[in-house]
From TrEMBL:
Chain's role: Modulates transcription in response to changes in cellular NADH/NAD(+) redox state.
Domain CoA-binding: 81-182
This protein's record includes keyword Nucleus: no
Lineage: Bacteria, Bacillati, Bacillota, Bacilli, Bacillales
Protein name stated in the entry: Redox-sensing transcriptional repressor Rex
The encoding gene: rex
Binding site for NAD(+): G92, V93, G94, N95, L96, G97
Chief place of localization: cytoplasm
Compartments, as annotated in UniProt: Cytoplasm
GO MF annotation, one: DNA-binding transcription factor activity
Amino acid sequence: MIEETGKIPQATAKRLPLYHRYLKYLHESGKERVSSAELSEAVKVDSATIRRDFSYFGALGKKGYGYNVSYILDFFSKTLSQDKQTNVAIIGVGNLGTALLHYNFMKNNNIKIVAAFDVDANKVGTVQQNIPIYHLNDMQDLLKENKVEVVILTVPSDEAQTTVDRLLEADVKGILNFTPARISVPKHVRVHHIDLTTELQTLIYFLENYPNK
Ligand code: ATP
């Protein structure tokens, strides 16, 4: 989760998790410095953009030295809220919801799936991966109780908007929408949309139409 990042432009903020993952890998393999060219090759962002991005958090690379990995990681851990746990809930435990329930978000970040919600009587009341599945009717109370402000939405598309309306009543601030439905939310709520089918179709389209690029 990217916290309020002050002066950092949104485009830069979006690239932070990308940089973070690679810098963490470098740190774990004992590397203390990295050049923007090296980073550029690894994360596929051009080095001028990397230098500009890094200048926002006061990391000015030195010629012949590059960037200090620990310094940047320290900045990231604060900016990306790595130092505090973010509780997340999954709404809709179908095929995709179940897969995400089993995904270990804690591996790299302090993100914890604390609860899941569904309407299917066969699923409600069960526990998967230590995560309890509750009925949707209990969602509002339980989200507040567990301080959940971020949810992953994996309900059927035609249920998306009504479910979101209920989420808004529970003061949810961020929704990762895996349904193909476009959902309406007030300005203070952020929705990020991941439509796997469209992504795959786009990839196939590009392969077919721009085979050499
Ligand atoms: P499955 O094979 O388990 O049905 P699926 O991903 O193909 O998986 P969907 O029809 O997309 O199934 O439903 C996803 C899940 O969302 C199901 O577990 C379903 O019970 C649940 N669900 C349906 N409506 C709601 C709702 N309003 N709120 C929460 N969960 C819901």
